[in-house]
Amino acid sequence: MNQTQAGPLLVRRAGEPDADELARMLTGLTDLSRYFRFQTAIGSPPRTALLLRMLCPAGAAFVATRGPAIVGHAMWAWAPGAATAELAAVIAEDEQRRGLGVRMLSIAAADAIASGATHFLFVVSAANERSVRMVRRRWPDAAVERDGALLSFVAPARLPDQPEERADVVDQQTGSLERREMPAPGELRPVDDSVPAL
């Protein structure tokens, strides 16, 4: 049974206890997916220091789970520049191209805005055409600079336009997606409490 058949998705705040499952997800990625996310080799399994930076950044991190397995990770961290938050996400191979990456970036973006971010930074490999298109489509006013193989997009901090979501995606932070809307940053509630089983 592949991960997409194991039940609904749950998106929640991440923490150190997620290290083993996050390592499993990252180990299951193709070399290209790992390169596009990290622009360098990360080891297999990834180093503990990398996992802790992903789970406990100078900002916030979120994971998407399907059953006990982590199938997505998104985070934001303060970047150089006044009130600039760098956003990043990585999604398990079986879950890619289903809207989960944009949904998780939206959650990270809302949390960064609530924490005072006025600009977003996205650092993307120029060869990662899907991510480049996503940033340009969702944040069309982003300025871009190239540094070798990397593109750095800086955009005013705002939530991206939301795509249609699959009915089985449940977002613990913002509730059911039946209404297909993202609450204002002030409406987000902490999600550090225990996660109910679905």
Characterize the structure shown:
- With 198 residues, this protein is α+β, with helices and mostly antiparallel strands.
- The chain has one domain: 3-Layer(aba) Sandwich (Aminopeptidase), CATH 3.40.630.
- 25% of the residues lie in helices and 28% in strands.
- The protein has five helices and nine strands.
- The protein has a nine-stranded mixed β-sheet, sandwiched between helices.
Largest sheet: 9 strands, mixed
**Morphology:** globular
Question: What is the CATH superfamily classification?
Answer: Gcn5-related N-acetyltransferase (GNAT)
Number of strands: 9
Q: Quote the distance from N terminus to C terminus.
A: 19 Å
List unreliable stretches of 5+ residues.
163-198
Order of helices and strands: EHHHEEEHEHEEEE
Number of helices: 5
> What is the total domain count?
1
Question: Which structural traits does this protein have?
Answer:
alpha+beta; globular; disordered C terminus; nine-stranded mixed sheet
Outline:
With 198 residues, the protein is of the alpha+beta class. The protein has five helices and nine strands.
Which secondary structure elements does this structure contain, and how are they paired or packed?
Elements: E1 9-13, H1 19-27, H2 31-38, H3 48-55, E2 59-66, E3 69-79, E4 84-91, H4 100-114, E5 119-125, H5 129-138, E6 143-147, E7 150-156, E8 169-171, E9 175-176
Parallel strand pairs: 1-8, 4-5
Antiparallel strand pairs: 1-2, 2-3, 3-4, 5-7, 6-7, 8-9
